Amino acid sequence: DGAAGVVLVSDRVGRSDGARIIGWGHRTVGLPLAPKLARSADDTHVLPHVRDTFADALGRAGLGSVDDLDAVEVHDCFAMSAYMAIAWIPSAPVGQLSIKYKIHGYAKTIVNDAAGGTDAIGAAYRALRRGDADVIIAGGFEAAIAEAAIAGLAAFEEICHDAPDPAAAFRPFNAERPGIVVGEGGGIVILEEMERAQARGAK
């Protein structure tokens, strides 16, 4: 885990003595959520280590309560597995495919929202023209049906949250469409230099 902080101040404060950190707090606990909840089962607060950290910061700053503050931001890192961090790296699928099928050489991961697959095919075409490779597997896919992905997408107003007929919700070119329908799918093409394809008798 790690953290970073930025202090924004007005010109008036900037021309004076500047801003100072007058209170801080810190607690170290294990990453998994279940043990944290188990430890706080008999406590009056859920995740009491977060409360204790906040209390430390108030005490060091000489403040009595949260009423003395203009804003508060605290966080606790939990419920994330180390494997989840690896799985959500955009280049992870390319690496897994190269391992499974023993594919080596030129590799790129294109991330461009809904146009990533099309962009990847264009990038592969340009790579072939430059002579970076003879054959390239290119395309795109989406696997958004996961708790973390759905939670994030739910915040967008453009996402279809409710449709009278779910079977007819996906209408991308209809002016009365209810919004973007979250789904999964993919498409892959294999690009090859024409001379190489002709040499191996491809039709």
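Second entry:
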Amino acid sequence: EMEVLDGYSIHHRTEEVLHGLGFSQADISRPYKEFSGGWRMRVLLAKMILMQPDVLLLDEPTNHLDLDSITWLEELLTEYPGSIILITHDLGVVAEMAQRVVVMYAGRKVEEASVFDLFEKPMHPYTLGLLNSMPRLDEAASKRLVEIPGMVPSMRTEIVGCAFAPRCSSASERCTQETPVLKNHGKEHWVACWNPVVEGVSI
């Protein structure tokens, strides 16, 4: 339920949110036009948080934020009373904040699962590639990260078959001719792939 605040409480809450996003007291007094693009994004983010809509849509909200601000934002959104749709390439933020994850590639949904199942058992080769390209605290710093080969296809031309096929080591002839359909592999873990991943290895 949305909290109703008086004028003083609104002012105090606004300052609290802005401080959490890295603004000093002097910054809060500055005209909006003096802020850079990154700081203007923080102002818009604060405005959305303060309005408390039933559904909060955040597109790459951690861009231009330092680590302290990201940590503060994660804590704040964890307690947010409404629903949150988070669009991001930062899998660390996904792991901390999301309950359910949809992985998109070239405008298509390729995998959907609970955040635990997705990180524990990725089943689409693209999802596995994303996770393998992330540095891990439990691995040696010298270990080379795995890069997904190739380029994302152009959205200006029609894509036949699986959009990820040209970059996938497990692609078959069927992948280049037929668009995979989403299939439930149990526990509402949906994957659109003709050759899904099994135990971290594509088949």
